[in-house]
Amino acid sequence: MGLEFRLKNGALHHITMIHTPMFFARTPSTFLDKFLALTKDAATGKADPSKLAAFMKQHPDNAAQFHFLETNNPPASYANCPFYGIHTFRFVDHAGKTTNVRWRFVPEDGEKWLTDAQLAQAPREFLEAAFRDRVKQGPVRWEMIVTIGEPGDSENDPTVLWPAGRREIKAGTLTLTSFAPDQASGAYKINFDPMQMADGIEPTDDPVLRFRSPSYAISHSRRQTEVSEPEASGQR
Ligand code: HEM
After folding, report:
1. Atom of ligand 1 nearest to the CA of 219
2. Distances 213 to 34, 210, 218 between C-alpha atoms, Å
3. Which domains can be identified in the chain, with CATH numbers?
4. pLDDT tens sequence across 159-200
5. Which residue of 59, 192, 226 sits with most ligand 1 atoms within 8 Å of its CB, as the best mutation to test the pocket?
């Protein structure tokens, strides 16, 4: 989930989230190695299982998310999906005091995961279709829960969860009232750089968080020029 908050003073704040509680890479090199391991062979059209096995052995930081995905099917709809901010961020008060936080968005419709039988029959893009149908029935909501970190809680490792029982705050409600494809909504033009933060929220030194900014900039500029160009030239 990508969110862009547009503040009254013109500032922007971005939140990006995925549906697993933890990430699969403690460092950018794990991220790269996973994509290399999953690359499909041109001749067979399949990834080489031995490369994936070697990756798993070399990168134990991938294990927690791998286990989560092995033991949880996809959600039935985006409306039934929790979303996790993954990284630790810092809230800074007026006196400059910082508090480490993490956040997640909990669906009002409740968490619902596909059964194996449903998954086997689910068509491509079923999540988008299910969401479009759900929005027609009324607003879809998530509650934003902020968890307050304690000394010793992992700050720079997005593969490690914080222990249960931390203080939590209901920070607000996200309400979606309409659906539009990316290009029509304008979201397509946004670079959801997670380092785009409003005053009072700051990054940690998490190397994965820090690496995302330059990578999203390259992707975004290529998306604007390489994908949008035919449309743009058609308008000239
Ligand atoms: C080294 C780690 C990561 C790399 C290299 C990476 C890379 C990327 C790139 C290149 C894009 C496309 C950006 C664009 O074209 O605008 C993207 C999209 C996205 N990423 Fe990551 N990512 C990383 C980690 C994460 C993490 C930890 C999260 C969750 C907290 C995340 C959530 C997302 C989301 C939600 C989008 C879609 C944004 C949209 O709707 O346009 N990514 N990522």
Report:
1. 15
2. 19, 6, 9
3. 2-19+78-230 (2.40.180.10), 23-73 (no CATH)
4. 999 999 999 999 999 999 999 987 788 888 899 999 999 999
5. 192
